[in-house]
Write a structure and sequence with these properties.
The complex is a heterotrimer. Chain A is α/β, with parallel strands linked by helices. Helices cover 39% and strands 22% of the residues of chain A. Chain A has one domain: Pyruvate-ferredoxin Oxidoreductase, domain 3, CATH 3.40.920.10. Chain A is globular and about 40 Å long. By secondary structure, chain B is α/β, with parallel strands linked by helices. The chains are: A alpha/beta, B alpha/beta, C alpha+beta.
Chain lengths: 181, 391, 96
């Protein structure tokens, strides 16, 4: 089973990310859960969201304390929130930032895998807004391969309708442009 | 065709209601049930079902509205949570006394105070005596299945009682997970249109909800008690039918690795699934332990519970609610009382856990069982405990 | 007053205590409650119907000449008709 924690700001679409991932995994025929950090949120406040993916039925019904992967949708959260909290030492950190993985690794003193991509830039170019939820989905898929890239297209098309092609393009760009260390 | 989808459980609950051909719904939104209210109103507004969605100003009104509609023969639905359910409290016993088959979803949420919007069972427990049929769903699939079943059970001529389906707020309602929606045609066959016993109609005037003098009140209450106790027969029949048509089994009391267990853990609601993992881990450590999951809360399944626990030496009942000044959590009180006269019965302990959304992890369950096992071995009688409370 | 028959056993109760006989309140003759009854002076009555409208029992109705009378089987003697009558055509008279 893989456990993923996403960090974002209220209104940046972290909940959509976890939904898309869960739906994509379910379409592939495996089991998945997606849930936000429960509670009232407001735009701009740091929020967390979670995914579990497994080939067996998932029976855990509590929060994720030791994720295998952490995805950060907004670089400004890195200093603000302890994004590494509970992350397994051999886990993966995927961050939307202009910094390189090596830089971030050193800065955070993290021994696991770090992957970075400037998702805000891609999102601004492809979508016109710096909303990075779908873009970072591509980064996550490349970094950890929890699901096949193709599986996410169906849920995205259903959710975003005519905006889906742009989101898929942003997603694929992040997939290709991701740097991993 | 059955549809296998990923969906948020709250949305799925509304979709399940949409499959049941309801005539009317009145739902006042309250976190964490609000997605059910919102999505159901969307389904109606989109014309996917032919129903009235009445926007009301409070939960007291929503339950009153659906009850009035039910009295005219409509198939009705409402949903609420926590303080909303408490606001309905005055009306709940009346719905049952009037024998109206209202179906209600309750997204379990802690009651105030302090104000807490997260998951526990303290909202449904004060409604124990209201005379409703009460179920607990453990996961999204069960929420969908049991929503459909609830209408059939409520409307059965031998029941004619309102049904409350509990689903853990946030833990279930806001989680996206795998759900298989049954085929609509099969659901239509399972759940035909409502045939009411009696309706309010100008062509054939009758009175419902009248005064009851002391001379008849007690007989009326006895008749209601018998009706609720008797509803178990129908519940079992409906669950049997469901299993034959849709392949999924539902029982009033379900067990996991409990047949030969010396120690039993008892849970209700979605934490049962996490508890199963704890049982696996504890067994690996050599403990003879099993899980008892309570699905039917009212009418209380005495026979099934006694059968499930009689061979065990120790039964640890977990509660997600408090009965202040009483002898423990509500489920513990109920079970201890149920077992009082049994010749073969385990020692019973009580751990109050998961209050106000506090997470209950696999390690928590393991600790509860291991601690209880040590005391249980010595036959110590224990007072109820608040597990994991600092201080 | 008619004798009430209660259901003997709980098994005989209608579900939900539903009452299937419409207008069953009619069999409850409340006329025995009154200590006074209304008497109309037809020479003062202007046939406005106010007594009929205000009677809380709904037991005031017109006779064949169009004057008003209370049905004494139900009239509880509350005196509202006498109180509301504009020309003062109604007098409350002691029973018995």
């Amino acid at each position: 089973m893989i456990e993923i924690r996403w960090h974002g700001r209220g209104g940046q679409g972290a909940v959509t990310s976890i939904e898309m991932l869960a739906l994509a995994a379910i379409e592939e025929g495996v089991y998945a859960q997606g849930f936000p950090s429960f509670g009232p949120e407001r735009r701009g406040a740091p929020v967390a969201a979670f995914n579990r993916i497994d080939d067996k039925r998932i029976k855990l019904r509590h929060a994720i304390y030791n994720p295998d992967v952490v995805v950060v949708l907004d670089a400004s959260l890195v200093g603000l929130v302890n994004v590494l909290e509970g992350l397994k030492p051999e886990g993966t950190l995927v961050v939307n930032t202009t910094k390189s993985p090596e830089e971030l690794k050193k800065e955070l003193n993290f021994k696991g895998t770090v992957a970075t991509v400037d998702a805000s830039h891609i999102a601004r170019q492809e979508l016109g807004v710096p909303i990075t939820n779908t873009t970072m989905l591509g980064a996550l898929i490349k970094a950890v391969q929890p699901i096949k890239l193709k599986s996410v297209e169906g849920p995205l098309k259903e959710r975003f309708g005519r905006l889906a092609p742009r989101n898929i393009k942003a997603l694929k760009r992040a997939y290709n442009e991701l740097k991993i260390s | 065709m059955a549809k296998r989808v990923g969906m948020e459980v709250g949305i799925a609950a509304a979709e399940a209601v949409g499959m049941c051909n309801i005539d009317m719904a009145a739902v006042y939104p309250i976190t964490p049930q609000s997605h059910i209210a919102e999505h159901l109103s969307e389904i109606v507004a989109d014309g996917r079902i032919d129903a009235e969605f009445v926007t009301v100003e409070s939960e007291h009104t929503s339950i009153s509205c659906v009850s009035g509609a039910s009295a005219t023969g409509a198939r009705v639905y409402t949903a609420t949570s926590s303080q909303g359910l408490l606001y309905m409290h005055e009306i709940l016993p009346i719905v049952s006394a009037m024998r109206l088959p209202v179906v209600m979803a309750n997204a379990n949420r802690a009651i105030s105070g302090p104000i807490n919007i997260w998951n526990d069972h303290s909202d449904i427990m004060p409604q124990r005596d209201a005379g409703w049929v009460v179920f607990f769903a453990d996961n999204g699939q069960e929420v969908v299945d049991m929503t459909i079943q609830s209408f059939k059970i409520a409307e059965d001529d031998d029941v004619m009682l309102p049904v409350c389906l509990n689903m853990d707020g946030f833990q279930l309602t806001h989680t996206v997970e795998l759900i298989e929606f049954p085929d609509q045609k099969k659901v239509d066959k399972f759940l035909p249109p409502r045939k009411p016993f009696a309706t309010l109609h100008p062509d054939n005037p009758i009175s419902m909800g009248t005064l009851g003098m002391p001379e008849i009140y007690a007989e009326s209450r006895k008749s209601q008690d018998e009706a609720l106790k008797n509803s178990k027969k129908t519940i079992l029949k409906v669950w049997d039918e469901w299993e034959k048509m849709f392949g999924r089994s539902y029982k009033p009391v379900e067990t996991y690795l409990a047949e030969d267990a010396e120690i039993l853990l008892l849970t209700m609601g979605s934490m049962s699934e996490t508890a199963e993992i704890a049982i696996d881990e504890l067994r690996k450590k050599g403990l003879s332990v099993g899980l008892v999951k309570l699905r039917l809360w009212r009418p209380f399944p005495f026979e099934e519970l006694k059968a499930a626990v009689k061979k065990a030496k120790l039964l640890i009942v977990t509660d997600r609610a408090v009965s202040f000044g009483g002898s423990g959590g509500p489920v513990f009180i109920e079970i201890k009382s149920a077992l009082y006269h049994e010749k073969e019965r385990p020692l019973v302990y009580n751990s109050i856990i998961g209050l106000g959304g506090r997470d209950v992890q696999v390690t928590d369950f393991m600790k509860i069982v291991e601690d209880a096992a040590k005391a249980g071995e010595k036959g110590i009688i224990r007072d109820y405990e608040f597990y994991g409370v600092r201080g | 007053m008619k004798k009430k028959k209660w259901p003997e056993t709980w098994q005989e109760m209608n579900p939900g205590c539903m009452v299937f006989e419409p207008a069953s309140a009619r069999s409850y003759l409340t006329g025995s409650w009154k200590a006074q009854r209304p008497v109309w002076d037809d020479s003062k009555c202007i046939k406005c119907g106010i007594c009929y409208i205000f009677c809380p029992e709904g037991c005031v109705s017109q006779d064949e000449k169009g004057f008003f009378r209370a049905d004494l089987d139900y009239c509880k003697g509350c005196g509202i008709c006498a109180h509301e009558c504009w020309p003062g055509a109604i007098e409350m008279v002691e029973e018995g």
